[in-house]
Amino acid sequence: MILNYTLGKDLLTYRYCYTRSDPNYDPNNGTFHKATYLTTELDQEFINSGFGAVGRLSLPIPVPASFVFRYLIPSGTQIQIGTIEPLFGQSGGGVEILCPGSQLPNNLKVTKIDEYMISDF
């Protein structure tokens, strides 16, 4: 991670998955599990397919992402932001956001806005 930053306003973020439900989000209490990475709204312009998401975001499973989840991170949240490194045989290069406060359950409450299929772009 390159930068530690405290959000001055709410931040819209995205997660790409090949499953219909996000395995790192607990809908019962609105929190993320440990080491949940997100990306920015601006980085959306560079992800134009499910395989594109796998490569740019260095996703661990080489199945094309089919679902996108949007989350609103509240202002005042401490985040870390940086460039995604090549991992899992993927190129990386996207923008990644980590909310260190989400390391502890119930510490970070997020709003899940919606989900949509990549084919809806």
Based on the model shown, name its key terms.
121 residues; mainly beta; two-stranded antiparallel ribbon; 1 helix; globular
Number of strands: 9
Q: Globular, elongated, flat, extended or rod-shaped: what is the shape?
A: globular
Radius of gyration: 13 Å
Unreliable parts: 102-108
SSE class: mainly beta
Total number of domains: 1
The proportion of residues in beta strands is 35-45%
Q: For the largest beta sheet, what order do the strands appear in spatially? A: 1-7-8-5-2-6-9
The topology string of helices and strands comes to: EEEEEHEEEE
Alpha-carbon distance between the termini? 29 Å
The helix fraction, in percent, is under 10%
What does this structure look like?
- This protein is mainly beta and 121 residues long.
- It has one domain.
- It contains one helix and nine strands.
- The protein has one helix at residues 50-56; strands spanning 3-6, 11-17, 25-26, 31-32, 37-40, 67-73, 78-83, 95-98, 111-117.
- A seven-stranded antiparallel β-sheet has the order 1-7-8-5-2-6-9. The chain has a two-stranded antiparallel ribbon with strand order 3-4.
